[in-house]
Every structure is written in C-alpha cells, then in structure tokens.
Amino acid sequence: MKAIVTLLVLSLLATAFIIFNSVFSTPTTQPSDYQEDKLSPANDENMEEKEGFVLLTSIQPLYLIANDLIGDLITVERLLPATTSPHSFQLAVSDRKKVDHANVIAWVGPELEAFLEKVIAHKQTIEVGEAKNIEWPDGDHLEDDHAFDHHHHGRDMHIWLNPTNGIVIAKQLTQSLLNHPQLPESVKSQMPQRLEGFIHRATEMTQNLNLSLQSNRDTSFVVYHDAYQHLQLGFQLGGYIELTESPEIRPSAKKIYELKQSLKNGQCLLVENYYNTPLAQQLANEFSLNAISIDPLGAESESYFQLIEQMISQLRSCLNFAQ
C-alpha cells in the first residue's frame, strides 16, 4: 500500500514540474520579428553611404590611370576583370548594377567597348577616346570642329599605350570630375596638384624608357594582331608586321603567302596573353617565330606606370631576340 502511495506522489510531482516549466521557462529563440530585423538591408545602405563618389572605369588601363590620380580620394572601380579583353565581353546582371551605382563612367568609346554604348546612355560618362588632344598614329588629332567623322571605325583604340595619351586621359578625367556637381569640394581642391604629379611622373618615365630603347629602336618585329600603333608612335619604334586582322581566325591563303615573303626566321612575335591560343602558337611555329607574351591591359600591374614599363620590358626582350 505504501508503495502505491509513493508512486502516486511521485507522479503528481512530475506532472507539476512539467506544467511549471512550460509556463515560466524563457524561450530559447528570439521572436520572428526580431530575426527579420537582423536580416534587414540597413547595413547595405550604410555601406553605400560610406563609399561616397564612385568613378566606374570600363577597363584595367583606365582604372590604373584613375587610381593613380585620385584612387585614395574617391572610390574607383573597374567594370571588366583585369585579364579580360573588351573585344568579346558580355555584360552580366551584376555589371549592370555597377553601372547604375556609379556617379560617372569612364570608357574609351564604342569602337573598343561596343557592349557599353546602350547600357550607359542614361549615365554621365567620360569618353576619353574623343579627347581632342589624343595622338593618333596617322598624326591626326580630334579638333573641336570634328574635321572627320565622330567615330572612326578601324582605328587602333589602344590609346593608353602612348604615355602622351596617358597624360591626355588623366587631364580629361580631371577636367570632367572638376565639373561634376556631386564630387566633394575637398576632393576637387586636391585634383590639380594630383594631375601635376601624374604628368611629371609620366614624362620622366617616358624619357627613361626612350633611353633604354636606343640600341634596338629600329629593329622590326611581328605582332599577332594590330594593337600597337600607339606604342609605336609613343616610342618612335621601327615597323612591325601583323599576322592576322582577327585574332580568332586563321589568315587567308593570300595573307599566308605574303607573310612567308616578308618574314625572316628568328623574328620575334608579340602575342597578347589573352590571345595566346593554339592558333597563335601554330602560326609562330609555321613561320619560325619566337613568341613572347605581352600584356597591353596591365592585368598584373598595380599602376599605369608599371603597365607601360612592363610593356617596354617585354618589347625589349622581343627586339633582343630579333637581333
């Protein structure tokens, strides 16, 4: 009998404990409205405010110039990956968001970045390829009266490979940003001095590199496709021969015949690293050329000056082969 009473008492105590615990215990999770608040986009908005003025550049060389100029004063971004050629690029949704977020967009122009023309039509832009003092390989400059058509199809648009044009681009960026109403005055006040420093450094670099090219400046070389007219003009280089007009297509039989008549065994072939394809290697072997990779976009460069210095270093390696 005592055992039965004991069991009844224990059962009542256990039931009472369960009821007490369910009523007065603290929940182990936060209410759902608290969790939703933690996931709200408030932090993203604060980050955007901290980023301030955003200059979006289309390609790596423009990014390097802008970053050298004022990268510590404003946010300078790059649209294309550093290693990507603009010739065959296609915009993703994330790229369009970058465009929408930018205060101003710097690009070379539709001849180089055709994929951008419609996308940035509603934005404020800086088209550096139309700067009036850009030096062109044929000696023409774009004057205010636009003596020739606004867009010149077939021009070599790798304008940054001539350091003189690098200075023109820096001037164009500076002037356009000084006129931008959203750029803080604290930034504008520093830009003239920054531009002066950029010009001095570019001028000194060009003089030093020209001295380094004295012994083999007139040596001819071969390029995979014609993207070096501005480099040739900027450093008064000798002539070069191009293998193909389209990097993805093998030259015609007529072109192959002409190349065989003009090329010499042992000449150097400059191939952009992003075009270093089996076709490029096949052509190099076919014409007994020493292929050297070159990077006109400066994918590994940390500054515009490093881009140009590395280009000339790669070119000298090529010219030394030819000699």
TrEMBL record:
- Which InterPro entries does this one have? AdhesinB (IPR006129), Bact_metal-bind_prot9 (IPR050492), ZnuA-like (IPR006127)
What is the protein's given name? High-affinity zinc uptake system protein ZnuA
Family statement: Belongs to the bacterial solute-binding protein 9 family.
- Superkingdom in the source lineage: Bacteria
Q: What keywords were assigned to this record?
A: Ion transport, Signal, Transport, Zinc, Zinc transport
Q: Name one GO molecular function term.
A: metal ion binding
Q: Which SUPFAM superfamilies match?
A: Helical backbone' metal receptor (SSF53807)
Q: What is the lineage of its organism?
A: Bacteria, Pseudomonadati, Pseudomonadota, Gammaproteobacteria, Cellvibrionales
GO terms in the biological process aspect are:
cell adhesion; zinc ion transport
UniProt KW Ion transport keyword: yes
